[in-house]
């Protein structure tokens, strides 16, 4: 067995066997697999904690799964899973462990787990103070609105979970999420909010992120606009690993919730970054979220590879990315409350797997991660699903559905489910020319109209999808769902030999924007960049000035 990151994965015998196998299998039809095997669903589905994972509608046979599992074994997946849970420095470029699993561990054995539980207690007592009205704003009124100011992992996770858990929202408190440096985001959020009863959570692991600091300063100015002597410490708390910076901003040291180097931003919603979740729902809900994720951690850590949901999710993704050269993946939650889930997964998957070199710094010769996108069904059916059905691309899709609705509208919910299942069925089955012609004939079309129209009605089918189902979108089911994708990303990175926990690519844009900010702000005509950038800056300058002049008048 090779150790992860040393042998280029495409040189392994399993990879080569998969290449050959793909050539044999690529002419098969998924629907024929079903026709020939009445046990196909049973053989290609599993029950994980809280989730049913159906992967039978994929272009795979048992041999495909065996070969993919052999690939994972040759990549050293068993050792890599142990290494992550043990706290080894799996994030090798930053020399850090990735211990998000410790954030949801019920144990207090390791130093990290102890810190986690101390912080959970601090969160719990803070949430209690806010929710019972003991913590008040500057005028003595209880807090009614919480604005989380953060971006990336300090925004997407808590915002997505808060939305997903809408049925469990607290009656007293509303949460809002401001991330964009576009001043409209904060300004529009503040409209109609009362400064006396608004609390800001400044969420930034590094406390250096431009967008967050700009918005945090603007929030401070907004509050000070109501009275100069406001006690700001009643309105600002922070979540950060850099408490000195948060204190320098003006936050009371007792109101800073810690975060640690061993928690990556996109894996941090389980930490105090999840504070708005606990505030906006309840501490019990937050703990259930953690326990659902922990159940998935245990499933991932202990299940054999062939019954391991995140392992199979990752291998299926790699199968299409590398053996069919498919570059994209659709995430289609048929649950309105999960409408932010695709955006959350974009960061988790694309920031983790968007890499071109291996952990050793060698050029990666195979595809790493795909383009992740999607939206809530059924809405997507009335827009981009046309391309899924008749476009030339293969877009493997993950359908996510819940057997029950938090509402009492059972008929509408059954329509939702029927649409979800119909989409995966339609993607697989398609419609042949013969079927299209027969359908038009039944509708009474003439021979010549049938000949003209039928080709437009052909749907190739054979498009793969997984379906993930849960009993209900509870906090613990959501925890398990998110954790399954986190581990899927890790498995993929291990097989490819890349680091899933760094994100150096985002730095260049940050560096350049600092220089460009100077150029946009100066009175001089800009000539120091490429012609396009100079022209864009020079187009903006007089218009910014004009706008500022009008504001002053
Ligand atoms: O720019 C990318 C990034 O570093 C993400 O990885 C991170 O989640 C986000 O910025 C926010 O970082 P911070 O929490 O330090 O403000």
Automatic annotation (TrEMBL):
GO MF term list: carbohydrate derivative binding; glucose-6-phosphate isomerase activity; monosaccharide binding
Catalytic activity: alpha-D-glucose 6-phosphate = beta-D-fructose 6-phosphate
Keyword Zinc part of the UniProt annotation: no
InterPro entries for the chain: G6P_Isomerase, G6P_Isomerase_C, Phosphoglucose_isomerase_CS, SIS_dom_sf, SIS_PGI_1, SIS_PGI_2
Localization in the cell: Cytoplasm
Record: active site: 351, 382, 510
Keywords, comma-separated and alphabetical: Cytoplasm, Gluconeogenesis, Glycolysis, Isomerase
Pfam families with a match to the protein in the record: PGI
CDD domains (UniProt xref): SIS_PGI_1, SIS_PGI_2
Major subcellular site: cytoplasm
Gene Ontology biological process terms, A to Z: gluconeogenesis; glucose 6-phosphate metabolic process; glycolytic process
Pathway, per record: Carbohydrate biosynthesis; gluconeogenesis; Carbohydrate degradation; glycolysis; D-glyceraldehyde 3-phosphate and glycerone phosphate from D-glucose: step 2/4
Record-listed E.C. numbers: 5.3.1.9
Record's GO cellular component terms: cytosol
Top-level taxon of the source organism: Bacteria
Secretion signal span: none
Role summary: Catalyzes the reversible isomerization of glucose-6-phosphate to fructose-6-phosphate.
Family: Belongs to the GPI family.
Protein name (record): Glucose-6-phosphate isomerase
